[in-house]
Amino acid sequence: MDKTTLLTKMEAHRSDLLDALETLPEEAFDLPYEEQWTLKDTLAHLTHWEAQLITALWHLKNGRKPSTAHFSTRSRDEINAEWYAQSKNRPLEFVWQDFVTIRDQTILRVEAISEHNLGKRYPWLGDLTLSDWIARYTFEHDEKHLGKIETWRKTHAF
Question: Percent of the chain beyond pLDDT 70?
């Protein structure tokens, strides 16, 4: 995927997710959403994974193999549980602010990557190109949760 397409999808999907969330009353973010998670917990989850992506892209820019949670020997469930515990008591205003601003940092990192490197298959990415991997942790992750949020909204009449 070329840089323009990647950036366009990142911005569009985040906008769709924000549109689905911005009209909700504040108390909705503390209601059960997915198993034990609330919407606030989901925003923190998305932010944590994207922060790891930003760090990985920084490692790559500096010629290092990324050593972020994406490449951990721990399971995704273990990592998510740790981040859930760290974030569950954070006030919504801080979680929200992190969520709405992190994409700007990701966009800056992606803009700094050459088209050649975006299409490259780094050994630590397996069969994915760098752009495929970025898509997985940005707009594809947003899209996955957007569908769940839209379903949740219908069952709660929001």
Answer: 100
Q: Give the per-residue pLDDT at 43.
A: 97
Which residues constitute the domain of residue 125? 3-25+32-155
Q: How many domains does the chain have?
A: 1
113-153 per-position pLDDT tens digit: 999 999 999 988 989 999 999 999 999 999 999 999 999 99
**DSSP, residue by residue, the chain:** --HHHHHHHHHHHHHHHHHHHHTS-GGGGGSEEETTEEHHHHHHHHHHHHHHHHHHHHHHHTT----SGGG-SS-HHHHHHHHHHHHTTS-HHHHHHHHHHHHHHHHHHHHTS-HHHHT---GGGTT--HHHHHHHHTHHHHHHHHHHHHHHHHHTT-
